[in-house]
């Protein structure tokens, strides 16, 4: 009977842990959790209440038609990329109607983020060794960022 006491104590600890979990759980699970499946329904309104940082691509294209025309003319490989993927959040630039000028990105780290040689990167994306490829020059010396074929 002495060996059974260990199992009884273990069962008691397990039962106490389950009871503590059931008592504490309502304090940590949001009210609307589970209304839409395994999801917190109030998350949608929380996200909508946040200030917008990004504008959509169509908003950029209304003022920057020259970039759109260049992408079409040169059949740019970057045509499918959204503007703010490289330029960052520009909602403030749009809201100020162009008065707030965004800073131009530093092209070398920006370009190498997608184009540096990596075994895990898709082969359809041109890959280079930046030190060997450019000899220390900026990418924009030879390539147009919006239509990156050799200019």
Structural summary, described in words:
With 151 residues, the protein is mostly helical. The chain has a domain of 94 residues. It is 49% helix and 4% strand. It has eight helices and two strands; from the N terminus they run ααααααααββ. Strands 1-2 form a two-stranded antiparallel sheet. A hairpin with a 2-residue loop joins β1 and β2. α3 crosses α4. The radius of gyration is 27 Å and the shape is elongated. The mean pLDDT is 86.
Low-confidence stretches: none
Strand order of the largest sheet: 1-2
- How far is the first residue's CA from the last residue's CA? 87 Å
Order of helices and strands: HHHHHHHHEE
Give the biggest beta sheet: 2 strands, antiparallel
Structural class: mainly alpha
Q: Please count the beta strands (DSSP E, at least 2 residues each).
A: 2
Query: Helical stretch count?
Result: 8
- Measured by DSSP, the beta-strand proportion falls in under 5%
Provide the helix percentage.
Answer: 40-55%
Bulk shape: elongated
Mean pLDDT: 86
Question: Rg to the nearest angstrom?
Answer: 27 Å
For this entry, give a set of tags.
151 residues; mainly alpha; 2 strands; elongated; 49% helix; two-stranded antiparallel sheet
What would you say about this model in short?
The protein has a domain at 57-150. The protein contains 8 helices and 2 strands; from the N terminus they run ααααααααββ.
SSE blueprint and pairings:
Blueprint: H1 2-28, H2 43-49, H3 57-63, H4 65-73, H5 83-87, H6 91-95, H7 107-115, H8 130-134, E1 143-144, E2 147-150
Antiparallel strand pairs: 1-2
